[in-house]
Amino acid sequence: MAYEVAVLTGLQWGDEGKGKIVDALSNGMDATVRYQGGPNAGHTVVVGNVKTVLHHLPTGILHSGVVCVIGNGVVLDPQSLLEEIRMLEQSGIEVGARLRISRAAHVILPWHRELDQLNEAAKGDSFIGTTGRGIGPTYSHKYARTGLRFGQLAETATLRERLQTQLAEVNRLLTRVHQIEPLQEDLIEQVLEQAELLRPFSCDTFTLLHNMMRAGKNILLEGAQGALLDIDHGTYPYVTSSNPTSGGACVGAGLPPGVVGRVIGVLKAYNTRVGEGPFPTEFSDVDFARNFQEQAGEYGATTGRLRRCGWFDGPLARFACRLNGTTELALTKLDVLDDMAEIQFCSSYRQEDTLYDCFPPSELAGDHRPEPVYETLPGWQSSTRAARTFSELPDAARRYVARIEEICETPVKLLSVGPGREELIRR
Length: 427
Ligand code: IMP
Known about the structure:
31% of the residues lie in helices and 21% in strands. With 427 residues, it is α/β, with parallel strands linked by helices. It has 3 domains: 5-103 and 202-265, Adenylosuccinate Synthetase, subunit A, domain 1 (Adenylosuccinate Synthetase, Chain A, domain 1, 3-Layer(aba) Sandwich); 106-198, Adenylosuccinate Synthetase, subunit A, domain 2 (Orthogonal Bundle); 267-426, Adenylosuccinate Synthetase, subunit A, domain 3 (Adenylosuccinate Synthetase, Chain A, domain 3), CATH 3.90.170.10. The strands form 5 sheets. It has a 10-stranded mixed β-sheet, sandwiched between helices. Strands 14, 16, 17 and 18 form a 4-stranded mixed β-sheet that branches. 47% of the residues are buried.
């Protein structure tokens, strides 16, 4: 039976514009699945004048009839998920009948946010710059095997006791290590109320997705964050606590690697990063960087923080493509470079007289930091926003795209030239 399982994943430090690309691909899909991360993500889709930012829900929710799955690899915050569902239903998007949440997904509890902030403060100058959404502490409980799974929200007889046990453990940490007041038990009442509302979405998503595949349905696995924030392969410790890469997609959705036929990597035409950590091609000129941020609208969709900006990083992009087994690329925000007379393109790193055109980000933390080596490419200095075919792009823009394809060893199949749904080139 013909079916397609595709993974869509970010190849940089998140914020590549994945929301818009998943939205463009969702039409042919029967199900979209979030497989890792949680409300640290903010996937933005602009339809007409309406901008929607999704934190938990797969972007397929904006397409009627698409089944939306929150997979076992996700950590979810009941309160913020309920707000997201309410926000969509108020704008006329039907969520209830299409949302399925894996019983093995983990629950972010109110104290996880508190712990996230305390952990950051305890790190002093080496803070990570997390989104403060409780992601790290929730995954810590998951891997310590003391977390709360979504399915356990339905076990009314034992839920209160489980929450009390975890709160008591957290309170020991707060009072003894952080030396602050313990949290009150009324937080538990909130969770019990939220559990009531979310219970109907609980699902054995393994069986659901495998049955869909057997029935010839198409499934899109939607990544959050990006390869350079991957807990194993990213710029550790300045990373998130999950695996956004395609290997993580299989684990986090419960599908075997052999069924994945397409891996779509999303790249921005330049690089950005929110939070701390190495960023070799970051703009060094403060005024230039500030103008660029403003003009490109580089503010975080979840935290509103300004994003750090820099030139396209080829060696890291090549690494991310190889790591993910990327079969095609979606390149976003090409239009942001429209006014530039010249564009710097980092094609390799130099480290102790050796040049590298592929570089693992985990090596950036070491003592011998590499220097980026740039090629200067001509800009096109004209608007690309009206282009709807590749041939309508200026020559210099096509050459820029070709250079990215060359370093990534992967063809660009989708090109975004503006925030709107229609500002897209398909090849
Ligand atoms: P956490 O995922 O909130 O623990 O944050 C860890 C690091 O990942 C921080 O540098 C965050 O800024 C970054 N991060 C987490 N989620 C996103 C995202 O969706 N886009 C961009 N950066 C993110």
